[in-house]
Amino acid sequence: MRESVVEQTAPHIGLHQLRFQYGDGTLALQGISLTVNAGESVALVGPNGSGKSTLLMHLVGLLQGQGEIVVAGLPVVKTHLPEIRRRVGLVFQHPDDQLFLLRLYDDVAFGPRNQGLAPDDVHARVTEALARVRLDGYVDRVAHHLSTGEKKRAALATVLAMQPEILLLDEPSSNLDPRSRRDLQRILAELPVTKIIATHDMEFALALCNRAVILDAGQVVADGPCRALFADADLMERHGLEVPASLCAPACC
Ligand SMILES: Nc1ncnc2c1ncn2[C@@H]1O[C@H](COP(=O)(O)OP(=O)(O)O)[C@@H](O)[C@H]1O
Ligand SMILES: [Mg+2]
User: Fold this and answer.
1) Does the beta carbon of 25 lie inside 6 Å of ligand 1?
2) Is 65 near ligand 1, meaning CB less than 6 Å away?
3) Over the stretch 35-85, which tens digit does the pLDDT of each residue have?
4) Domains of the chain, earliest start first
C-alpha cells in the first residue's frame, strides 16, 4: 500500500541545473531545475527561441547538456536511452519528422516492431493507437497525403503505440484549424499519462494543464497554476506572451 502511494507521487521527471549550448555558441538552456510528478500535465510556455524544444529533446536524450536529468526513474544517460525511449514519447512539432514510411500502418507499427513484439501484438498496438487518435481505418493511407490535422494525430499515434508513461508534445496545436485543434485537445485530455506540452497557445495550455512553467531565454521565469500565471498581464508581457482571451477582464481585450 505504502509503496503504491510513493510510486504515484514520486517525481516522474527531474531536472537539476540543466545547461546546454549549441555548436554555434547559442546558450539555449541556462540552468533549468524542474520537477514534474506522475500524472501531472504541465504547460511549458515561452516565446519563440526560449528553449522549449531544446528542453524536450534533452528528456529523451536527443541532446545532451550539462546537469542532471532523471526521467521515469532513470538518469538520462546513453545506457538508459532505449528504455527511456520506450517509456517516454516525444511528438515533434512537425509531423513530417515523425512519419516517414509509405503506409500509415507501418509508421505506427515501427516502434512496436523495433521493440520485438509479435505481429499480433503489433497489430493490436496499431489498432488501439489509431483508434485513440480517431484515425481508425486509415491503415493504408499514405502519411504525406493526410491533412495537417490528420498528420498531427498520426504522429501522436506513432508515439502512443509504444504505450508511453510520459508524453512530451512540442507545439501540438500549431498550424491546426479550430476543429482539428479542438479534436486534438479532446484526444489529449483523455490520455491518462504524465504530459509536458510545449506551446505558446495559451488557451490550449489552459484547457489541458493545471500547471505552467514559463521559460524565457533558457531560464525558468515562473512556475505555478496556469490560471494565476496567465492572468498576470505584466508577467505575460515581460516574457513575450499574452493573457488568453478567456482570462481577460471585459475591458482588456
Ligand atoms: N540547431 C540549432 N543550432 C543553433 N541554435 C539553435 C538550434 N536550435 C535552436 N537554437 C537556438 O536555441 C534557442 C532555443 O531554441 P528552441 O529550443 O528551438 O526554442 P523554442 O522551442 O522555445 O522556440 C534559440 O535561441 C534558438 O535560436
Ligand atoms: Mg520549439
Assistant:
1) no
2) no
3) 999 999 999 999 999 999 999 999 999 999 999 999 999 999 999 999 999
4) 2-92+164-244 (3.40.50.300)
The answer to whether the pTM exceeds 0.90 is yes
Quick check: CB of 22 below 6 Å from ligand 1? yes
Q: What is the pLDDT of residues 188-229, one digit of tens each?
A: 999 999 999 999 899 999 999 999 999 999 999 999 999 999
Eight-class DSSP state of 239: T
What lies within 8 Å, CB to CB, of 167 at 6+ separation is 88, 89, 91, 159, 191, 193, 194, 195, 196
DSSP state of 171: S
Which numbered atom of ligand 1 lies nearest the CA of 26?
A: 5
Distance 167 CA to ligand 1 centre (A): 21
CA 29 – CA 50 distance, rounded (Å): 8
Cα separation, 50 vs 239, in Å, equals 9
